[in-house]
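Q: Structure for this?
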Amino acid sequence: MNLTLHVWRQKNTEEKGKMVTYRLEGIDEHMSFLEMLDVLNEQLNHKGEDPVAFDHDCREGICGACSLVINGRPHGPDGGTTACQLHMRRFKDGDDVVIEPWRARAFPVLKDLMVDRGSFDRIIQSGGFTSASTGGVPDANAIPVSKPNADSAMDAAACIGCGACVAACPNASAMLFVAAKVSHLALLPQGKVEASERVKNMIRTMDKEGFGNCTNHYECQAACPKEISVDFIALMNREYLKESVKP
Amino acid sequence: MTIKLDAKIPAGPLESKWEKHRFDMKLVSPANKRKYKIIVVGTGLAGSSASASLAELGYQVETFCFQDSPRRAHSIAAQGGINAAKNYPNDGDSVKRLFYDTIKGGDFRAREANVYRLAEVSGSIIDQCVAQGVPFAREYSGYLSNRSFGGAQVSRTFYARGQTGQQLLLGAYQALERQIGLGTVKMHPRTEMQDLVVVDGEAKGIIARCLVTGKITRHAADAVVLATGGYGNVFYLSTNAKGCNVTAIYRAHKKGALLANPCFTQIHPTCIPVSGDYQSKLTLMSESLRNDGRIWVPKKKGDNRAPHEIPDDERDYYLERKYPSYGNLAPRDISSRAAKEACDDGRGVGPGGQGVYLDFADAIKRLGENVIRERYGNLFHMYAKITGEDPYKAPMRIYPAIHYTMGGLWVDYNLMSTIPGLFVLGEANFSDHGANRLGASALMQGLADGYFVLPYTISDYLAKAKPGTVKTDHAEFVKTEGEASAKLKKLLSIKGKKTVDEIHRELGKLLWDKCGMARDEAGLKEALKKIPEIRKEFWTNVNVLGAGEEVNQALEKAGRVADFIDFGELMCYDALHRNESCGGHFRTEYQTPDGEALRNDDEYCYAAAWEYTGEGKAPVLHKEALNYESIKLAQRSYK
């Protein structure tokens, strides 16, 4: 199939970017979206033009590196999928495809389609852990965890930290990302010990990093490649409220 | 250089070596720990767990990864599980059994003492991960659930759906982020190691490049830890992430660290087959699928009927037929070769005949679709996304692909390389899996090394050294930085006609054909003739655009491919010298009458550690004899 790509090109964080149009021919429907970009970059390289920079690594939907807004949707038109697992059979001959980076104040563009998501790491640093240092912990089966709780914790822990939730939110809020980690740990007895400090500190850091607030659009859930539920935001709000009204 | 390989295996019976050694090793007192700086390169399971554990102990740690966040290291993609000798299911497991299965699975080419220690600490890993909040699968009782993996007859594999690697890495990553927040670890994301700095024969730091600004920086330390993963991408197509590379360990190799058993590469039997020339990577379907899936091909050659039209008695469930006691859970090397055999025999399925079926119809009938969805839902989803086919309705098509590399930098019992002060963990070292790794053992080794081995052994080295003796203005730093910058400039100045990927593909295809699932003398000699041509082509005709002082992904790739070319040559030397078949190394000249690997214990029961002698020059072999004290060498049988 033949496609017309409109790709965001930006030299670095300081300079202004713009959309640039490229024609691509002979794209195979079995290619992944990123393999289609590889083809573009090989062509640019042969023409002596700077290839398009984009983050990617595992190409199997788990590392969370991909961060492309495709035709206005983070990770593209399919639900529950990262851009690397999107395949060209989803497009048709003659399509226009618009490719942009995540856009959020807390994710500055580094080059082209590549953004800096260090703010997510700093949120985790402020409380997204249990303080269990190596060694000196009890036997793994010492504390039973009910299966439904363990399953819900896993649902939340499936977050890959890609940032699609932020990119999709009209407020560029990181509520789903933070809620996933707060809930994952609050649902387990091992995480309960520090639950109140955790939620307070993580939300404080989220605000400091320049993420917006949640106004219940639920775009985050729709864009999440791991289909993490906004119910976890409710769970986080409950944890936060418990902490706020503590005597 | 005269090198004497001393594995430093403690004396005494196998069962008490580690305990005795822990007592014999020197300690650094709590007040002195903060005076020592340790550099850790890589943030997968081994690197993250080591960084966090060392910082918790009080050392100053500086950690580097090329990804934008430590959480993205490729351990994240491990699917199936992690082994531990907990014996929770009461099915007869023990430290000794895990040890024996691992040695046997590795076709008797691993070091006994290391493997025993690995089995010994395996239980503590699960305890630690649970304390971190890793959401392992549980039974309705609230206790942990286990499943089976290849090469074992007990259920000792702990798992978190099909995302075990992700959950374990997030546990280690969170422990690491906690230390970063506390200021005990200085983290350098998007920073790639360019070279190791060796001062008076000891590792004293690294030269790194910031992948955002292109700035080259010097970092001094009292010890350097490499946890930079495996080299599967030397084949271009593999199940590794695109960024996985051999650069850190290869550059340390050029600085004097011996590289052991590079030809021991693991081909995973269950991957999604190649679909076209544009293919950039291969995707693994977890081994855990073989718990419920049955592998088959048509009995008749060239049978083009759809799978559901082929009646049961016209199917060859070849693993169940050839290995009745392990069946579909035969180890990886054996299952891969059996798939290749069936396809070479003209009975492969799918486009090009390069595939076999992995069929869940029986399991779905027995357990219902919901149970299968709960166990493997994410894998089925991934398969459907990539192939456009529904595995609940039709069997999956799978084919072997490069997945893991058992070889790596040679290390002694303390995980120290032949360069004092340079420690190597996880897949980057060679130590625990011999010639073939069992499923769910990579996660175990990465975390064992990082949480429970290195934190002890590194203190024995540091306690004998004064802290902070070398600063970054040392002549060796200046020189090494100059060399690293010159190399990058050279890559940018060639301005030839081929892209980095084109040359990498060419190298990968050559190695897959000549040094892949099956190898022979003629093919390896041919590869050794062709690799220098590829190297010449690369250094005279590659085109790397852009500048060094900016984000330049082509430049990053070029540096890695340059090392893959040299490393591929070493791999072929190793495969050619080892005149036997063992584990993942299958030389067609050496096989039993029924096609199994034929070892030669009299001549090759050693780890082959290679010394670098200069570009394009033949490497020099050093042997570490493997002395088996507590087990008897036997031909591996899974029948």
